Amino acid sequence: MTETSNPLADMNARSREVFRRVVEGYLQSGEPVGSRTLTRSMSENVSAATIRNVMNDLEYLGLLNSPHVSAGRVPTQMGLRMFVDGLLEVEELQHEDREKLDATFGGNSPDVTQMLDRIGSTLSRITRGASLVLAPKHEAEIRHIEFVSLGPDRALVVLVLADGHVENRVFVPPKGMTPSAMREAANFVNAWAGGRNLSDLRKQMRAELESRRQELDVLAGRLVESGLALWEDAGTVSERLIVRGQANLLPESDNSEDLERVRSLFEDLERKQDIADFLDLTESGEGVRIFIGSENKLFSLSGSSLVVSPYMNAERKIVGAIGVIGPTRLNYGRIVPIVDYTAQLVGRVLSDRTKG
């Protein structure tokens, strides 16, 4: 089978229906679907033997798999991908789900992280999966930066943004740092900060530090680098991954292999350095994307799926993402519109706050 071939396009109507019903049955029950079960639901009157022959063909194509010799079939990862891309029927957003999501955005709290935390909890309850929310980076223009000594091994960097947002971070300064060196470093940064956001300033500072290393005290230069680097660290307040509903991923069985799989997933969710990868998943364009099993580069294990959508600010720039993770037998048709609607709501709220 070549990379450009499309088994779905080459199937006849019967094979397509068998494939679709196997996948839908598996997504609904989580159990293998047998030929006798399908004889009761097929649109044409066919024997179990005929259906088994079709299933064998689909298994040969790599779309179905038989977990046990005498059992029915389940879709492979390739089969699920083909179903999602070619046969998935996305449902209308249910009125009850819409009301629950709308209610999450009530109130006038200025704390965006708290709002996103509520959204994560609501998404988890609605979908019965684990929700993931990447909080937006704060990219307003910088008004002022200050370095404050708190002791021989602790310093505070204060970042004041043009929109009034203030962030404070405690960090370990270079050894031998003096108050005068801190003032010199702050003056150096503030001379370049006007009209730039933190990302732009960081790039400019690195270039300047290289070209003016002799002019700027070495300790002050290291202070600038370490202070600004704080905002690069994944998992900080300005780039926070919110995870809710992990318990929903625990399998109902006592199968030790399933429990180990979920434990590995929790470990992946805790890897803060992977937060940037979560947003990278969405950068190919707006709209919902579905990652099945090992396609999902954020999570190392197969056996899980991620339905994710970016949300944008008033300038239509992607600033964060909303997602739901669960087993590969997620109800994709129901979850896709939920994730899509939530991402649109978040983007709209953030844009309205920026305008206000």
**SS-derived structural category:** alpha+beta
- Order of strands in the sheet with most strands: 7-3-10-9-8
Number of strands: 10
Q: Would you tell me which CATH topology of the largest domain applies?
A: Beta-Lactamase
Helix fraction, binned, reads 40-55%
Q: Let me know the largest β-sheet.
A: 5 strands, antiparallel
Give the second-level CATH assignment, the architecture of the largest domain. 2-Layer Sandwich
N- to C-terminal distance: 56 Å
CATH class category of the largest domain: Alpha Beta
Quickly count the helices.
13
Strand composition percent: 15-25%
Please tell me how large the radius of gyration is: 26 Å
Overall geometric form: elongated
Q: Can you say what the CATH homologous superfamily of the largest domain is?
A: GAF domain
Q: Provide the succession of SSEs.
A: HHHHEEHHHEEEEHHHEHHEEEH
Low-confidence stretches: 233-238
Mean pLDDT: 80
- Provide the domain count: 3
